[in-house]
Amino acid sequence: MRVAVIGAGAVGGALALLLDRAGHEIVLVERQDATAAAADRRRLTLTGAFGTHSAELATRRALSGAFDLILVAVKAQDTVRALEPHLEAVARSVTVVVQNGLEGASTVERMLTSLPHALTTGFVAGGLATFAVNRPSSDEVRATATGSLTLGTASRADAARLSQLASDLSSAIETRYTDDLASALWSKLLINQVNALPAITGLSVQEAGRDPALLRVLAASMGELLAVAAASGAHHVEVGPLDAALVSLANTQPHEPGDANARNERLARELSAAFGPTPNYASTLQSIRRGEATEIDALNGAVVAHGRALGLPAPVNAALAGLVHEIERGRPHFSPSAVHSSTVTAAVNAWFDRGHRALAWRLPTTTPWGVLVSETMLQQTQAARVEPKWLEFIDRWPTPAAMASASEAEVLRFWDRLGYPRRALWLLACARSIVADHAGEVPRTREELLALPGVGPYTASAVMSFAYRVPEPVVDTNVRRVLARVFGGVEAPWGPSAVRDAAEMRAVSPADPDAANAWNAAAMELGAVVCTAKRPKCEECPVMGLCAWFRAGRPASSTVGRKRQATFAGSDREMRGLVLRELRSIPGGVEIAFLQQHLDPSGADAERFTRAIASLKSDGLIVEREAAEIALAGD
Fold it and tell me: Which residues are catalytic?
């Protein structure tokens, strides 16, 4: 056969040399924008798994006439540019597009619609190469593993001719025909999932598959692909290392999330190992090492694009494509732990974006003052209880200046039964300080926020992140639990520690400020509604497959003697609440003896009453007057 090869890189060069060795006439197509002087012939050498073969092959910058076969072996993003000069020759020939991705053949078919129909006497097919090759130099192709070529077309009218072509090529390389090109392309794309991690980490395919953190990432990305492929109507077929057993596994649809994770991990592990003992760094990393653009957008990016069209999120694939692009721009390779944390945060952020509780303070119109109020109210109080009170608060005191003139008693009466009433006085003191020292504007720096009454490291970080979009790490109990489980593999989080909290969160937060701020909110939401303390809903978790705790079998906490909050009934906290309730309803105060008799007619709780009065006075919530009276502070 007379064969033209457009794109004599690793795959194209290997095919050209294998076909030449089998006796076919080969023409290599040189780029028309190449700066070197045109040469009539070019020597290429094949070494490695297919044996050694060297040949001087004819070269052309423009194709004319018809060929028995045109092989297109350029990267997906280069297809249009590479074929435009040769479009009429392509129209007259059988053209096989051998490239990664899903759109190769369809892209060429769309290009041919610009020509008169009478010129199109050939047809276009897709080709899948499953051998492993690289290009140590511009004139050498090295095969690290043998494999086959699979041909397919979407048109049944061309099936017989393509099947015959597969037979004709088999003397050069094992070639198969498939009547389901779409499924074959998705199957090859599944194999190509191993490409991203070597490019991101600098590790080989095999090394990435043996690293526990990277294996979880690869399994998660494969799980997204399997979901999108199934929704697209594709079923996986045998291609290269995807043998019958793995095809059967890939086509299963587990009912339980845990079973899906096990399936994904087995596929990731076995496909990584299938590349043999010789370290394979995959084509994406090879492109980066040559200073060329990668085809990652046709690999992981294709999963994202098709998933988006079907309404199926693929955040892990999107994260991996983004990390590859960072490497292309010159960033050093990422560590396995950094890759894991990047995909976790991306997946949780995407989950948060798809839908979360529409809490009032999350509206973009919320002011920094509204954020400060919400974060103060949310300390040790559930969001469902806080929201109506927050709306009422903001309506009554929309600015620090509006609140600054209120009395302590007025604020405490408003606080009612929200709990921990010292927070009400802290907010009042904050409002007065903001008006006096900051011209009524909530401070923008961490140092100034920490100087406000009652504002600690957590609240300062929350205001910086949620109000001013400065990516300070925000760690509450919910976030601490997510960090402990997903990254630490333990059920229960460590105790609150401003230093450790910030360090743990910074270690996994995205570098992009917007993504880091989103992660603060998303991790908090995940811990509040999914990764809960008592009954975590792992089956609903967007990072179940990436979670170290879930992967370890959700082991119970080894913490001994965890402190439990005392029962409320009969506690000092209950008596404090009863005293405040009565004082809120009695403007001006009441005699202590009268109040004690009212709350403790039998006298059995005299000591508890005395302790409650003392602690409320110490906290500044009540004041004692002459004549043995007490009242709310400010009354």
Answer: 375
